[in-house]
Structures are given as C-alpha cells and as structure tokens.
Amino acid sequence: MVPALAISGGLHVLLVIVLLWGADFTSDAKPTPKAGRSIEATVIDPAVVNAQAKKIRAQRDQAKREEAERLKRLEQQAKRLEQQREQEEQRLRDVKRKKLEAERQAREEQKRIAEEQAKAKEQARLAKQQAEQAERERQRKLEQQRKAELAAEKAEKARQEKLAAERKAEAERQRKLEAKRKAEEQALKEAEQARKEAEQARKEAERRAQEAKRQQQEQEAALNDLFSGLESEASQRQSARGQFVDDEVARYGAIFTQMIQQRLIVDDGLSGQECVVNMRLSPTGLLLNVEQKAGNSRLCRATKTAVASVSQFPMPDDGDIIAKLRDIELTVRPN
C-alpha cells in the first residue's frame, strides 16, 4: 500500500512541475506613466493539462490494481501456508493416535492370549466329560432317529394322500371353470343374437312407423280434400295422431326394454319372473330416476342396475311422443 501512495504523490509533483514549466514571467524595463511595472504570462493549454491529469490518474489506478493483486497473492500464499500447517498438525495427530491404538491392541492381544490359554485348559478338562456325554447323547439320538423315521413314513403317507386330494380338487375346479367359461361364451352368443334380433325389430318398427306416417299423411291429405272445413276432419286427424303417438311410444318402449335386457345379469333361478319399473327421463333421454313398481325383488334390483348402466336412452324428435316417454313404465323379463 505504501509504494502505491508514493507513486501517486510523485505523479502529483510531476503535474505541478509541468504546469510551472509552461508559465513565462517577464518584466519590462520601461516604466509606464501609470503603472511602474507590467507582468506578461503565457496561457497554458487546458487540453494538455487534462491529458496529463488523465495519464496521472491512469498510472495511479494501475498502481492501485498492481498493489491489490500483490496483496491478493500474499493472502493466497498465507492461506496455503495455513492449510499446510493444519495438514501437518493433523498428520502428527494421526500418527500419535495410530501409535496409541497399536499399543492398546498389543495389550489386548496379550490379555486375549492369556485368557485363551486358561480357556484351553478348562476346555481340555471338560472335553472328557463332554465326550462321555456325547456318547450318551449319540445313543439317545439314534433312538430318536429311529422314531423319527417311523414318524416320517407316516407323514409321507399322509402327504401323498393330501396331494391326491388336492389333485382331485384341482381337477374339479378346472372342470367348473371350463363349464363356467362355456356358459359365459353361450351367454355372450345369446346376448349378441338378442341384440341382432332387437336391432332387426327396431329397424322393422321404424319401417312400419315410416309407412304408418306415410299412410297417415296420405289419409290426412285425402281427408283434407274430401272433408275440408268439416268438423269431423279434425276429429279423425286427432284420432290418427293419437294412434301414431301411441304406436311410437310402444315402439320406443320395446327398444328401451331390449336395451335393458341386454345389460341384465341374472341367474337361471329367475326364469319366468318379471319386474315392472317406472323410468323418468329428460327430454334428451338422460335417466333421471328409476323405481320398482311391481315384480320379483331380486329381478328388480338387477333391472335397476341394468337401467343405470344404460343411463342414456334414444328419444324421437316429436314433442308429444317425448312427453309420454319421459314418464314410462316397462315390464322386464329374463330372456
């Protein structure tokens, strides 16, 4: 830090000398009437002064940086020396600890050898007693082995009988599984056949409905032409319309019943039973509620589960038909 201050001071002195060097002081020998003496001065260029000042500041900053780097190197060197000192102290502590540990292990080894010698003498004394005891134990074990062999023969026989029973039970289980698999395959085939038949019935019902609608339209046109303005015409149209709505409600009821039966899961014990349920639907066919009205309780529980699994039923575009389908009773019978 001291060399940096010395360099900075020298640079400032040099700047003062340069400034004084550029000044020229002269005196005139001839006195003027009013002023006895005049002094002439040479003006110093500010640019030169600024350049010299910048140079001095740059040199001063460079000196500060060099001094900072020198101090940093000294600090790093001091840290390295401190680390080396700590490592050497740790090495000496490790050497001392290892020496103490070796001495302790040597003392323990001597103690262990003495204890083992004492134990060896005691073991030699007991060896004879143990040999006699071992002979008696051998004779006892031979007798136990003979008894164990007899017990093992009985156990093996029981094990073979158990294995035979397990094989028989496994064969029966496999037979039942195979029967169940075949039954499920048959049920799937029957369900698929029922679905196809229901689809055909639906298409036929739709065809009949279209035909009925066409005939109705023809009848209405003929009635309009023949009985225009007559009161009976309105009555006949209303009757035909009501019949058409009832037919469509019945057709959609059959479709709903078929959809429910396709998802109905029951056993053969419910064959011949029936369940009457009431369904409330939204205008789009979404299931809102289902209640048991009559019939077998087990079948009705299975029916309600099947209805919930359908959840969405197809609806027509006709508002009168939708109004009747929104609150409908259906009778479900196992196929």
Automatic annotation (TrEMBL):
It comes from the Bacteria. Gene3D superfamilies: 3.30.1150.10. SUPFAM superfamilies: TolA/TonB C-terminal domain. Residues 111-220 are annotated as: Disordered. Residues 111-125, 133-217 have a biased composition (Basic and acidic residues). This is Protein TolA.
